[in-house]
Amino acid sequence: MKDVAARAGVGLKTVSRVVNGEAGVSSDTERRVREAITALGFRRNDSARVLRKGTTASIGLVVEDLADPFYSPLSRAVEEVARAHGALLINGSSAEDPERERELALALCARRVDGLVIVPASDDHRYLAPEIAAGVATVFLDRPPGRIEADMVLSDSFEGARSGVAHLIAHGHRRIGFIGDRPGIHTAKERLRGYRAAMAEAGLPVSESWVALGPTGSDRVRTDAARMLDGSGGAAPVTAVFSGNNRVTVTLVRVLAEPEWRGRPVALVGFDDFELADLLSPPVTVIAQDPADLGRSAAELLFRRLDGAEEPPRTLSRPTKLVARGSGEIPPPD
Amino acid sequence: MKDVAARAGVGLKTVSRVVNGEAGVSSDTERRVREAITALGFRRNDSARVLRKGTTASIGLVVEDLADPFYSPLSRAVEEVARAHGALLINGSSAEDPERERELALALCARRVDGLVIVPASDDHRYLAPEIAAGVATVFLDRPPGRIEADMVLSDSFEGARSGVAHLIAHGHRRIGFIGDRPGIHTAKERLRGYRAAMAEAGLPVSESWVALGPTGSDRVRTDAARMLDGSGGAAPVTAVFSGNNRVTVTLVRVLAEPEWRGRPVALVGFDDFELADLLSPPVTVIAQDPADLGRSAAELLFRRLDGAEEPPRTLSRPTKLVARGSGEIPPPD
DNA sequence: GTGAAAGCGCTAACAA
DNA sequence: TTGTTAGCGCTTTCAC
């Protein structure tokens, strides 16, 4: 910038004004400055600007896995809102590792992002308290923060799961399995709670061998599914399964498509919608969340905070929607 | 940092040494400094560090759409490589808009990212020449740069498409349609070239009404597909379709599942693999690329440049793989 | 082993 | 309309 000023024969501040489109520069000087900028290939160094202004026009996003079809539209939605506010998005995947979430979040804070959207992997966010106190707006998404108060945007996991299981019950099922994500994860617990509530409302007993929480890798899901389906867990075989998220659902679709179960169609309702669910045979009934809407809501709340909204922490709950397509309407064999 | 120094009763530089793990601090002073850091909730301001050191330990990634199932694993792979090198990832979507690509890329440069991975939407990247000259390592991914020389990592689109169309020909098809992305996009052109090459090799004529390039939105694809399939374009109806990318394939799967075509199964081979392709009926035969591998290769090349590799610009071509699943092996009705 | 001073490139505040 | 000065928070240099 100094070089530009020298070349244009003006003061530093004049160049700054031109670069930032501030008023108070005669069109002639402006032209000279612009010429010098082009000639020198000058581009403002935003690091210096950040240092001086104390604001970075960037926000951070921490999700579980950027490549997951649930998180990728969510990230894109956050990006669009950021863009509308002139901010860039720095994002990273925690890989469901609390330590990695922490590292990422703190690295983002060290870069002085203006705000942070976090899908937590950890259940203790006290490490963020100093940052939040120092002014980093923070919104938790999909899962609540642990041991601190903060804004959050959640899907109604409990009600979604409850209605999905009630749907299976309404179609005549009495023995229903639940396969969900790891038990430490808030949404997994809430969805399981919804399952239990629906069963209890209908006066149906739940065998503990029908309930399986754990990693969403396909091996674990296959094992648990097989146990429920063939009755080797000790209780009678289930006639329907409720799946806790899109990763589990995809594995279950594969399991249920295998020859051994083909003769005895098993009903399936999955939490989360996914692409092509309607073209499978049978098409898959789901409890749909809108990941883009979740991302957008969280980002908008974040920018409202950055614009100075000073209310106490808020919780936004987003509804889910049952999409009946076929797999959830298969009756039990009687 | 000044406050920490004051509180610990040491000099500024000593705090800096502790924070950065440099040698030359007695363990006693180190302890005092660490206490002050915790007490004050101090976190190094990386903007200042960047300003001083001239390097940001962050890289930028510009893709078409972060939410697209082709780009999201690619982004994740770039992120993992960045993480392994201690760098953060700033990324954005160009939405296939050259102006937006330019804005994003220049904004990233203004933040002084150390390097840039770009999936180009534009066909003229001369705007990046000053940045590259100024030391921003740049790798183009999936499509080559326009009007400048730079590193690039590409899939072998030509050979992939050629082999896919040859596969259809080997299964007896003589009238084959091609539906691809917009004609300005390099991969679309290459894949079309592959299609023409395979047809020519087999001595088959190509009616121009069998070829359709354009936006990947479902309306356009539906219209073009219907024209080829019912012969309303003037030429005889096609018995097979080759699809130029995963968005087009998904729409075609929907079109071909509709009642009007059910009676006359149409063969389909798609460029790009996608989740659940194997569970559709019929399962979809694809030319698979490995998006994660593309991302990883590009990022690794980028970091090799950042580590000082000084060779002239390189082009890496990644192979594709035909995955036969059923839809591409449907014979023509004779 | 430790610290003081200079300066990275920019913008805010104030002069002219 | 334009320029000058100070300083954002850190690291580098060099002296102690």
UniProtKB/TrEMBL annotation, chains A, B:
Spell out the PROSITE patterns in the cross-references. HTH_LACI_1, HTH_LACI_2
Annotated InterPro entries:
HTH_LacI, LacI/GalR-like_sensor, Lambda_DNA-bd_dom_sf, Peripla_BP_I
Record flagged with keyword Cytoplasm: no
The protein's matches in SMART domains, at most eight in alphabetical order, are given as: HTH_LACI (SM00354)
For the region Disordered, what residue ranges are annotated? Answer: 309-334
Domain HTH lacI-type stretches: 1-53
One of the entry's Gene Ontology molecular-function terms is: DNA-binding transcription factor activity
The organism's superkingdom is given as: Bacteria
Listed A to Z, the keywords are: DNA-binding, Transcription, Transcription regulation
The keyword DNA-binding appears for this protein: yes
Q: What is this protein called?
A: LacI family transcriptional regulator
* UniProt organism field: Streptomyces diacarni
